[in-house]
Amino acid sequence: MVTAVTMADRRYADSLPIGLFHCDDAGVCHFLNRRARELLADTIAGTAAPRWLDWFEDAGGVAAAWARARATATALTAPFLLGTTPALWLELTVAPARDGGYVGTLVPAAPPLNRFFATVGHELRQPLHAAGLFLGVLELAEQPPRQRELIDLVAQSLKSLEGMLGNLVALSRLDAGMMRPAFEPTDLGLVVERLRAEFAPLARTRGLDFRLYPRRIIAGRRRVRSDPLLLGTMLAPLIGNALTFTSRGGVLLGCRDRGRSIWFEVWDTGCGIAPDQQSRIFEPFFRIESGAATQSPERRGGLGLGIAIVAALSRLLDHPVSVCSMPGRGTLVRVKLPVISTG
Description:
12 helices, five-stranded antiparallel sheet, Heat Shock Protein 90, Beta-Lactamase, alpha+beta, globular, seven-stranded mixed sheet
C-alpha cells in the first residue's frame, strides 16, 4: 500500500532541483514533483496516472532492469532514453520507499557514448602518443626527400587526429558533467597574451596580419571572474577558426571595456558565414558549407567540434557568446566576461 503524500511533503518536493516521483508496485505514479513534470511534459501529457515503466524508448529494457533490481532487492540506477523529440537521456533511480511503494528520481544525463569517451579518453590517446614518439625518431634520422615528404604528411595527419580526438573527449567530458570550473580572479591579459603567442606562428605561416587591440586593457591587468584554464580552452577555437577561414587580410583580437564587463572579440576578414548557418555553428559536427570555406585541406579536416566546445564552456562559465558575420567580408565573435576588479 502507498501512503498519500502530504501537502508539506509536496511543497518540499516541488522545491527540489531534481525530478521526483512516488509510485505503487505496478509502477503507477501517484505523485510527481514540479521538476519531474517539466522533464516529462510531453510524455505524460493527458495521462492522469502515468506509469513510469512506459516513459522510456526502450520500455522492454527498462522493465527487465527493474525486474532484476526487484529480484535482488537493490535500487535501479541507470541512464535511459526518454521517448521524446528531441531525444533526452535521464538518469533514473528507483528504490523502495519507507512508507510503501517506490520513490524515483530523474536527472538529465549525458548519453552513454559520451560517458564512454569522457572516461576512456586518456587510454584512447595513449596509442597516438606512442605513434608520435616513433614518428619523432624517424624525423631525426636522415631520409631521402620522398621519404621525408611522406613522414611530414603522416605527422600532419597524426596531429590532426590527435586534435579531433582531444576535442571529442573534451566535448564528451562537458556533456557528461565531468568538468567543474574553479572560478577565481583571472588575469585576462595573461590569458590573451598566451593565446596570441600560441597562434602567432600559424598567422605567419598563412601570411596573415595578427594583432591585439587595444593593449591598454591587457596592460591594465583587468581581472574577470572565470576559470583561467577553461577560459583559454574556450577562446582558443575562436582564434583558430578565424585564422583557418581567413585567406587574406588578418585577424584582430579586441578587448572592449564595458564597465562591469569586458567584451573579448575576434575579428577576421575571412569568408564569412551565411545568415542561415550562423545559428547552427555552435552545434556539434556542424561545418560551414561554402566553396570559400572548404577549399583548403585544413578547412576540410575538422569535425566541427571546436565551436561546440565553445558553446558548452560558454554555458558552464556563464560567458555569453554572440556572432555577427557577412559572407565574403568576415566575422566578429564576441565573448562577454564579468569584471570583478580593476587590479
